Amino acid sequence: MKNWLLNKNDVEVEKLMYEETLMEMNKNFLSNRHFISLLEKLMLSIKTDKHLGYYLFYRDLLKEAYCKQRKYKKALELK
Predict the structure, then answer these.
(1) Organism's domain of life (predicted)?
(2) Domain span at residue 65?
(3) Burial of 8 per CB tally in 10 Å (0-12, 13-18, 19+)
(4) Looking at the 3D structure of the chain, how many domains does it have?
(5) What is the dihedral of CA 51, 40, 42, 60, to 10 degrees?
(6) N or C: which end of the chain has fewer CB within 10 A?
(7) How many other C-beta atoms are found inside a 10 Å radius of the C-beta of residue 38?
(8) Does the pTM exceed 0.70?
(9) Rounded CA gap, 51 and 67, in Å?
(10) Could you read off the pLDDT of 26-64 as tens digits, one per residue?
(11) Is 79 a residue whose pLDDT tops 90?
C-alpha cells in the first residue's frame, strides 16, 4: 500500500486513511491528540471525495476518540 501511495499523486484521502490505520495499530490510539486532528482532516476530505459509508464509519470512530479525550461537546455535535 505504501508503495502504491508513493506512485500516485491524487490520492490524498487514501494517504490520510493509511496514516489513520497506522495510528490505530498503536495501543491507546484514541487518547492520542494527533489522532483526532488526523480524523478531522480525513472527515473533511471524505465529505467531498468518497461515499457516505466512509464518512459514517470514521464519524463513529471520531466520536469514540472525542469521548475518550473528554471532548463531549464535540462528540454531541457529530450527531
Answers:
(1) Bacteria
(2) 2-77
(3) exposed
(4) 1
(5) -50
(6) C
(7) 19
(8) yes
(9) 25
(10) 999 999 999 999 999 999 999 888 888 999 999 999 999
(11) no
